[in-house]
Design a protein that fits this description.
Low-confidence stretches: 1-27
CATH architecture: 3-Layer(aba) Sandwich
Shape: globular
Number of strands: 9
CATH class: Alpha Beta
Oligomer: single chain
Number of domains: 1
Strand content: 15-25%
Helix content: 25-40%
CATH topology: Rossmann fold
């Protein structure tokens, strides 16, 4: 299991946009610990997910500059097209494989997932060391996250493997850390019907230390659809910002699922761990109208409400 925590003052200040950084072990130092944890993660094989439709991570000419996660066999979706999830990478990085286990799990439940960037980590990939002094800044833009919707729409219309197999009436956006802020930025797009924000939240102090990303609490007033927040407890550097977001949101239903998992939670566990399970149920409920999935969030005895591993806050969830 790989856990994450902030290891520098800059990352603490960046909070939800902090880079993916594993919890330090005594005696090694943060840089060495980070490298060792990433090496362990890179050795973990790609997985096909636990859902009904074994999935793969790949690049596709219909989605230039992006990595996609898709069911390997598209034939089942000729008459029942796939919903689409566009994803914001942690740290707003250009590594579209950085959450590969989590995203493959979602795809295996019958989704196309589109993440900006290239495959820069994982089995067989040699990570490139950073050049020079690093500053907090985006490697992918919010426009590139949004472009995943446009590419999916074009692929669905064009002759080829995707024709008629994508449902652009069922689109969601999600992201974690800095990518969660990108998700919030495009959540008002009328094509988006569901939102998931993981280990993220708009900065409470009005400051924005991330070059290339402009966000404020006013963004929360632009939400149009129900939104799910997943936080990793007080040790999650995004915790105060995400909790404050949930308190402020008053125009759409919001569900907060909080557990003691730290920044990054279970994203890099096998099949995305418990956070993938929660995310899939939210998407199945919001995009597919699955009442069984919705029972995780609805009613006085909702699945997460009665799970001792989670603390929930619900507003406007019937």
């Amino acid at each position: 299991m790989i856990r994450y925590a902030a290891i520098t003052a800059a990352a603490m200040l960046a909070c939800a946009a902090a880079a993916q950084t594993p919890q330090a072990a005594p005696g090694n130092g943060p840089a060495a610990d980070f490298a060792a944890a990433m090496a362990r993660y890179d050795r973990m094989p790609d997985t096909r997910g636990s859902g009904q439709y074994p999935a793969e991570k790949t690049v596709d000419p219909a989605f230039p500059g992006h990595v996609i996660y898709r069911p390997i066999d598209l034939e089942p979706f000729a008459g029942k097209p796939l919903p689409v999830l566009v994803w914001g990478n942690g740290g707003c990085s250009d590594d579209g494989a950085s959450s590969r286990l989590f995203l493959a799990e979602i795809a295996s439940h019958g989704y196309l997932v589109v993440a900006p960037g290239a495959i820069k980590s994982g089995p067989g990939i040699v990570r490139q060391p950073p050049a020079g002094k690093q500053q907090l800044g985006v490697e992918t833009t919010t426009a590139e996250v949004r472009a995943g919707i446009d590419m999916a729409a074009a692929a669905d219309r064009a002759l080829g493997a995707w024709q008629g197999k994508l449902d652009l009436s069922r689109v969601a956006v999600a992201g974690w850390s800095c990518g969660g802020l990108q998700a919030l930025q495009i959540a008002s797009d009328p094509r988006i019907k569901a939102v998931v924000i993981l280990h993220s939240g708009v900065f409470n102090d009005g400051q924005n230390p991330i070059k290339g990303l402009e966000v404020s609490k006013a963004l929360l007033k632009t939400l149009r659809t129900p939104v799910l927040y997943i936080l990793g407890g007080p040790s999650d550097v995004a915790y105060p910002n995400g909790r404050d977001d949930v308190t402020r949101i008053d125009t759409v239903p919001v569900f907060l699922a909080d557990h003691n998992a730290g920044h990054g939670g279970t994203l890099n566990e096998a099949n995305g761990g418990s956070e993938a399970r929660v995310t899939v149920n939210w998407l199945d409920w919001q995009l597919k109208g699955d009442a069984t999935a919705g029972a995780m969030f609805t009613g006085p005895d909702c699945g997460l409400c009665t799970d001792n591993g989670w603390t929930v806050v619900r507003k406007g969830i019937k």
